[in-house]
Amino acid sequence: MGETRKRGRKPKAPASTTETMDFQYTSASNATQTDYVAAQNDVFSAANDSVPTAAAAAKNDANNPPPARRGRGRPRKSEAGHMEDTEPHAAASPERRPYQNGAVVLEPPPQPVAKWESVAARVVPAMDAVVKVFCVHTEPNYSLPWQRKRQYSSSSSGFIIGGKRVLTNAHSVEHYTQVKLKKRGSDTKYLATVLAIGTECDIAMLTVSDDEFWEGVSPVEFGDLPALQDAVTVVGYPIGGDTISVTSGVVSRIEILSYVHGSTELLGLQIDAAINSGNSGGPAFNDKGNCVGIAFQSLKHEDAENIGYVIPTPVIMHFIQDYEKNGAYTGFPILGVEWQKMENPDLRLAMGMKSDQKGVRIRRIEPTAPESHLLKPSDVILRFDGVKVANDGTVPFRHGERIGFSYLVSQKYTGDTALVKVLRDSKILEFDIKLATHKRLIPAHTSAKPPSYYIIAGFVFTAVTVPYLRSEYGKDYEFDAPVKLLDKHLHAMAESTDEQLVVISQVLVADINIGYEDIVNTQVLAFNGKPVKNLKSLANMVDNCNDEYLRFDLEYQQVSSLSVPLPLSLSLSLSHTHTHS
After folding, report:
1. What CATH number is attached to the domain comprising 563?
2. Other Cβ atoms closer than 10 A to 368
3. Residue range 260-290, pLDDT digits in tens
4. Which end of the chain has a smaller Cβ tally under 10 Å, C or N?
5. What is the rounded end-to-end Cα distance, in angstroms, of the chain?
């Protein structure tokens, strides 16, 4: 997690955003943050220096009383005018102790140890398993897909687990070219291999082939899901310094969160410990020194302070077990339905529900979902795997807590089945539903693959993805992109697993395409009267075309004249010399 170095002007930040703390600067000029561990070691060294005991100090003071010294702060009153501490337990009088050079200083009495300080002390043995992750990224240029952007470097955090593996955030190694790891207190960077990247859960797994890296380090142990107000300590390498840093707080909230990088909603922890740029991938420890989560994003808002988010252990273990079970990351399955709350009593009566029945109504079903032939719109989901679903779509979580029933779905693995009880036409039916991953018409990620494109007569065809929209319209693409593309992004469903939304991204000016220079990001509906299913099918149809003209039926976006029909047809006399990949 860290900030990237990018050229150009800095874009304006929105008023309220939840950001993944991507990358950090590694420049020494940013070393302004005092490292907690270093300070802790300094205090420990001073306390264990060769200092005479208090009894010996008193004996020496009797013979050679030191000159009076005035300390900083407010002067102490005499016993006659004793000032009571406002805390429940009054502080004892300061103790006189000589230091090495013979001078006498006033040492304050021991203070009660705060809860987070005791947690940090217990975490110290596990800190050696926290590593610094250095990554070189080479991001594709989605607007010019035959090119790549200039490479850049980043640093973030990670930690060692069993099986000679290291966990960090997926966004910390996104579009990686090279990844290196450095242990605490070491001056050596070790080349790492990326084993798996989970985009939905924002977790990546690494390993190092050099056996020297694993010497003298004990892997981190995982703990249970913490409760509210449990103390947590976040350890990592955030911006502001090069050494390890510790921030502490408590668990503020446990609920289904929006994962910014993964564009999904999974279980997450909200904590009040500071999570800064560079903390990404660092572990969050409980008071027993066990890892209870991975720091991955924070909330930036003018009215919010110290709101950080942590990936909890159930999500982490799902990622690890998925990799161990399948040899690769397969993702988190979904039920494949859009549902509606049933909180209105008249709506429940209209759906034939009894007074003791609760559930949610199915609005739409993903055509690519395995259960699309079993479930139907207007079915009311009453139970999922035997757990009752409330009218607001929540299920019991822990004592006094409820959570969205999508949490039950996310506990499953791709290919697992779930028993779903529904109400249809006042009849209760049960189905064994096979769960699968989500197939989006406009994917949120490209799975580290370079973007596909097809060029003919200067027309650049490509498939729309979220990275493409972000490249074309910036971070605020949800406001600046064409309305019809946004409508498909937010509401359209893929009819088949290989369906893509193909557009003409731009027209490279040439004599053959005069008059079409202004066509930008317009969807291709058909070619010579045949529907365009995906980019590959379009390329095949053009390659095999023997007609005199190539006709592309486009969805018209640009308004130049009211008399122009909405489906704009292009009839072009083109040679069959073209470039594609």
Report:
1. 3.20.190.20
2. 20
3. 988 889 999 999 988 888 899 999 999 999 9
4. C
5. 34
- C-alpha of 56 from chain center: 57
For the record, the structure tokens of 345 come out as 């009593």
Q: Tell me, yes or no, whether 138 and 283 share the same domain.
A: yes
Long-range contacts of 32-36 (CB under 8 A, 24+ apart): 32/240, 32/241, 33/238, 33/239, 33/240, 33/241, 33/245, 34/241, 35/241, 35/243, 35/244, 35/245, 36/120, 36/245, 36/246, 36/247
Please count the structural domains in the chain. 3
Q: Are residues 305 and 404 in the same domain?
A: no
The answer to whether 310 touches 268, Cβ cutoff 8 Å, is yes
Structure confidence by residue, pLDDT tens digits, 351-404: 999 999 999 999 999 998 877 789 999 999 999 999 999 999 999 998 888 999
pTM above 0.85, yes or no: no
Q: Do 376 and 525 lie in a common domain?
A: no
**Residue 517 domain-assigned (yes or no):** yes
Write out the catalytic residue numbers: 171, 202, 280
**Is residue 485 within a helix (H) or strand (E), and if so which, with residue range?**
helix 483-491
Q: Which DSSP category does 334 fall into?
A: B
369 and 493 co-located in one domain: no
- Residue after which a domain boundary falls, among 378, 413, 437: 437
User: Which residues constitute the domain of residue 552?
Assistant: 453-579
In DSSP notation, 352-412 reads T--TT---EEEEEE-TTSGGGGT--TT-EEEEETTEEPPTTSEEE-STT-EEETHHHHHTS
CATH number at residue 280: 2.40.10.120
Here the CATH number for the domain that contains residue 406 is 2.30.42.10
Alpha helices in 17-141 (DSSP H): 36-47, 54-63, 115-123
Please, what is the angle between helix 466-473 and helix 483-491, to 10°? Answer: 150
The burial of 160, by beta-carbon neighbours within 10 Å (0-12 exposed, 13-18 middle, 19 or more buried), is given as: buried
Neighbours of 222 (CB within 10 A): 16
Domain identity same for 238 and 380: no
DSSP state of 218: P
Instruction: Please give, one letter per residue, the 3-state secondary structure of 160-200.
Output: EECCCEEEECHHHCCCEEEEEEEECCCCCCEEEEEEEEECC
Q: Do 505 and 545 reside in the same domain of the chain?
A: yes
The one-letter amino acid code at 176 reads: Y
In the block, tokens 């060692």 appear at 160
CA distance 357 to 312: 32
Domain check: are 433 and 476 in the same one? no
What tens digit of pLDDT does each residue of 98-108 get?
444 444 444 55
Residues 277 and 397 in one domain: no
The verdict on residue 469 lying in a domain is: yes
The C-alpha angle with vertex 563 and arms to 558 and 566, in degrees rounded to 5, equals 50
Residue 323 to residue 332: CA distance in whole angstroms: 12
